[in-house]
Amino acid sequence: MSKESLVLIEQRRQIPTGRNSALVLLWALGLAAFLVNADSRAVAPVLPAIADDLQIRESTAGLLISAYAIPYGLFQLVYGPIADHIGKTRTITLALALFSIGTVGCGLVSSYESLFILRVITGVFAAGIIPIALAQIGDSFDFAERPKAISLFMAFSTSGQALGIVIGAFVSEFFTWKWLFLLIGLGGLPTLLFFFWQRGRENGGVGAAPVVASIPLKERYKRILSSKRARIIYLLVFLEGSLFFGGFTYLSVYANQNLHLSYLVVGLLAALFSLSALVGSQFITRAIHRIGQKNMALFGGLIMTGGFTVIWLIPAPWALALGFFLLGIGYSFCHSTLQTFATELLPEARGTCMSLFAFFLFIGTGIGPAILGYVYEYGGAEVMLGITVVCFLLFSLLCRSVFRSGAFR
After folding, report:
1. Cα end-to-end distance, the chain, whole Å
2. Which domains are assigned to the chain?
């Protein structure tokens, strides 16, 4: 039997049988993504409490965020090839188990050095969850159903980012910061139990035999990056990450300094972003039928442009709330479209494709806030928001152009 046939057999074995099983898998993967993003965002509000409890400077406590983010970004490129070799659900399960153990450990230590080391470790294992989950969704849902599945998964993911700030602020206000890590770490148990249940129920899932990689790693990267379509998708997700997270990062600062809202209120308003992303995931299939899959990135980009425009032109809390709502829907439409096309770049090596996708997104997410933070510091919120609006409009027009090019015909 050829290696290609073995790969196809293994991919079928990893897909839960039946639509209900696939939906349960999707919710389990979504919970894992929620926890990873909540863990990355919820730490910022509790940094003063950590600094006070461990008797360190707040700037030193802030290094805990870098301790998590740097290995998270670097190890994106590691897990794709691993998943393509040993299986996606197995990779996710191992990464989630070690992430949960490390996160619980963060809530049990009493020294800064131990906490720092554990944050590095959790960042390493967190990197193996979201991109591989997206690759598993690519295996579990056909192309027609995949946009809605990815959008729902992304709603969980973005909910973790937005609600993580609220959770962190709430815990630091009423409890000890250690409870934050304990809650997030133990929150991984339902997903882990599902995977182990799936292992006992089927031959697939985490108990599947290792995948026989049909394409050597070097050849995989060569084939992916030599594709014009792949280069376009990775460029667009880099730009999307730079612009969206560049502008979104400073909305809480804008709301606090310009609108004089408390961080807790801002966190609650940011929850509208999560809600609208969930709403967008429910309507994405209808939108695709009306305007076409290739126009979804343009449509989502224009909605995000509108969201930032409302916040820019109307300095009022209700406008900020409306802006958050529009941003959630627009990001849901645009990002899920890019993810859907990324899952089809090289189906026999989806893990590697999605790891590259996450890597370019992460690079953009790191660069965007740095550049727009400089603009915010020296030009103020109005200049930063105005530049974000113009850049998002140009990004939308770029999406229109590239998805009508020969690479997508």
Report:
1. 34
2. 1-214 (1.20.1250.20), 215-409 (1.20.1250.20)
- Please name the residue that has the structure tokens 């969704």: 137
Mean pLDDT of 49-63: 74
- How high is the pLDDT of residue 89? 82
Closest CA to 158 of 9, 320, 37: 37
Contact 85, 213 (CB under 8 A): yes
Distance CA 279, CA 12 (A): 31
CB 323 within 8 A of CB 313: no
Pick the closest to residue 190 from 80, 30, 342, 68 (CA basis): 30
Do 7 and 211 touch, CB atoms closer than 8 A? yes
Size of the chain in residues: 409
**Are 93 and 106 in contact, with CB atoms under 8 Å apart?**
no
Handedness of CA 317, 322, 327, 328 (dihedral sign): positive
- For 86-124, write each residue's pLDDT tens digit: 788 888 889 999 999 999 999 898 888 998 999 999 989
For residue 293, which phi and psi values (nearest 5 degrees)? -60, -40
Identify the pLDDT of residue 107: 87
Among 61, 26, 70, which Cα is nearest to 43's?
A: 61
Cα dihedral 392, 310, 159, 302 sign:
negative
Q: State the Cα–Cα distance between residues 352 and 341, nearest whole angstrom.
A: 14
What is the DSSP code string of 345-368? SSGGGHHHHHHHHHHHHHHHHHHH
- Return d(Cα 12, Cα 347) in angstroms, integer: 13
Across the chain, mean pLDDT equals 80
